[in-house]
Amino acid sequence: MNEKDPRRADEDWKTRAEEARRKLEEKLRSKPEEELRLPPASFMTIVSTFVTQAMVALGEMAMPGAETRELDPEGAKFAIDSLGILKEKTAGNLAAEDERALDEVLQGLRLHFVQKVGQAGK
User: Fold this and answer.
1) Coil, helix or strand at residue 75
2) CA nearest 65: which of 35, 20, 30, 16?
3) What confidence tens digit (pLDDT) does each residue in 76-117 have?
4) Where do the structural domains in the chain lie, given as residue ranges?
């Protein structure tokens, strides 16, 4: 098989995914049980989930266990658009603090998206 063979690319991807899975499992086994507990469910926990997804997709954070960061404009757009829908559907029902935080996060992510995607297009 040569380097352009799609089967080789598929095998390379599988190998990298398996290695990332193994590293994550090792990391999880080495953490104390208290560190593995989930945070309490809240509006801001939902927001932070989408923010994390957007930041990973924008290449600002690596996936747990991954060694590289990759730009995924579609993934970033999905996470940011999801936050926009969350804002739209919760309008008038949020505490002022939550509404302000969501507005700031959305504004920052949208700006960052435009900058990163613009840089990648150059």
Assistant:
1) helix
2) 20
3) 999 999 999 999 999 999 999 999 999 999 999 999 999 998
4) 1-37, 39-120
